[in-house]
């Protein structure tokens, strides 16, 4: 099978030049991973990864001769970043795992693409392609990819024990790429249920990054629901519940909202979420604001006025999901109206008659009246 000729990375000048340089020196150069999987699925890919039988030293020599810059981003694991025309390309030597402990692996370089494929996680991720678009499928994973089935390579339990993050990756890839009509692979779920304790070995940073990617999928609700049923969700987010995620996805569609992991984390709930997932300060702050505002009585217009259109729409969607109420178009319009409204009274308008706490209290009173009027009261009416 050949990939369509219009796949963008098959026409990427830098990638083709890199493959030509490696092949010209007598080495293999195969596109691998996400770019190939996404091309098979008809999904756009952002990163271009290349696998080769050349060792890192040999890759460096080839690139030096071709005038390409190399950066040793993961040289101990066989990975170099090659920069061509200002664009980075990851080149990794074929590998096999010598030793694993559930978090990291000791690898040995290989010249066998089948060995390299067997150390990967899912069959759909073990696809390679030559520079002319010809697919290389060492493990026969193409049918799974075409059917959108997320299946572990060989023995699911063995793959999980090599890296327990693969439990979360299974659900992330299911959310992004699986066909819901197929359900979830039974062997994978059984192996996951048997290895829940391994999740405790993972760093908060790795778990947080994986959960954020999962919740950024167009509709992660089925995957998260199964995560809860097999016991994964309680392990990574104590107290979280999946029950309101599907209603939130529906509310998002009604409000034309793009996927947002923090909005979705807010509806899952849970204890110490920011710490458990090691969220950035900005994400932790956004999560806290959304969770707090979802339980307040501020209307859509006031939310838009005080917190901006985006936060207001997020809160409207959250409330719709949790309180099982329909989304009203009027609420979205009110949030936008509040976002552009500007309170017409300033402190100087009340001075010098009022000052200090009295001035602040009067401003709050007038602002509340103005908001209650749907921002219609004028400055003269408020001060009259």
Automatic annotation (TrEMBL):
Name its co-factor(s): Mg(2+)
MF annotations from Gene Ontology: metal ion binding; nucleotide binding; nucleotidyltransferase activity; tRNA binding
Coiled coil (UniProt feature) = none
GO BP: any one term: tRNA processing
Q: Does the keyword Glycoprotein apply?
A: no
> Domain tRNA nucleotidyltransferase/poly(A) polymerase RNA and SrmB- binding spans what residues?
186-237
Gene3D superfamilies xrefs:
Beta Polymerase, domain 2, cca-adding enzyme, domain 2
User: Which of UniProt's keywords are assigned here?
Assistant: Magnesium, Metal-binding, Nucleotide-binding, Nucleotidyltransferase, RNA-binding, Transferase, tRNA processing
- Pfam families in the cross-refs: PolyA_pol (PF01743), PolyA_pol_RNAbd (PF12627)
Q: Where is the Poly A polymerase head domain?
A: 31-146
Q: Which residues form the signal peptide?
A: none
Q: Which family does it belong to?
A: Belongs to the tRNA nucleotidyltransferase/poly(A) polymerase family.
Q: What is this protein called?
A: Poly(A) polymerase
What's the source species for this entry? Pseudosulfitobacter pseudonitzschiae
């Amino acid at each position: 099978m050949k990939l369509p000729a219009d796949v963008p990375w098959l026409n990427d000048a830098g990638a083709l030049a890199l493959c030509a340089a490696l092949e010209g020196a007598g080495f293999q150069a195969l596109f691998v991973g996400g770019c190939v999987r996404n091309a098979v699925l008809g999904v756009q890919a952002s990163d271009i990864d290349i696998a080769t039988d050349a060792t890192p030293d040999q890759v460096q020599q080839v690139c030096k001769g071709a005038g390409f810059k190399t950066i040793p981003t993961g040289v101990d694991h066989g990975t170099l970043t090659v920069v061509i025309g200002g664009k980075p390309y990851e080149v990794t030597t074929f590998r096999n795992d010598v030793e694993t402990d559930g978090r990291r692996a000791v690898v040995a370089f290989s010249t066998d693409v089948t060995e390299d494929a067997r150390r990967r996680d899912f069959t759909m991720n073990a696809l390679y392609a030559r520079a002319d678009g010809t697919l290389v499928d060492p493990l026969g994973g193409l049918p799974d990819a075409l059917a959108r089935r997320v299946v572990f390579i060989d023995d699911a339990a063995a793959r999980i024990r090599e890296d327990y993050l693969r439990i979360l990756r299974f659900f992330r890839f299911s959310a992004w790429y699986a066909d819901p009509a197929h359900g979830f692979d039974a062997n994978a779920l059984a192996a996951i249920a048997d290895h829940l304790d391994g999740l405790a070995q993972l760093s908060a940073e790795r778990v947080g990054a994986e959960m954020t990617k999962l919740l950024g999928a167009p509709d992660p609700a089925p995957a998260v629901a199964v995560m809860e049923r097999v016991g994964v969700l309680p392990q990574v987010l104590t107290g979280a519940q999946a029950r309101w995620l599907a209603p939130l996805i529906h509310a998002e569609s009604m409000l034309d909202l793009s996927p947002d992991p923090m909005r979705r984390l807010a509806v899952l709930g849970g204890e110490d979420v920011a710490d458990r997932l090691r969220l950035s300060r900005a994400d932790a702050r956004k999560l806290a604001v959304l969770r707090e505002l979802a339980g307040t009585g501020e209307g859509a217009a006031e939310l838009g006025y005080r917190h901006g259109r985006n936060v207001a729409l997020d809160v409207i969607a959250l409330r719709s999901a949790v309180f099982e109420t329909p989304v009203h178009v009027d609420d979205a319009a009110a949030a936008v109206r509040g976002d552009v409204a500007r309170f017409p009274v300033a402190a100087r308008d009340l001075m010098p008659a009022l000052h200090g706490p009295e001035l602040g209290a009067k401003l709050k009173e007038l602002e509340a009246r103005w908001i209650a009027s749907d921002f219609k009261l004028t400055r003269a009416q408020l001060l009259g």
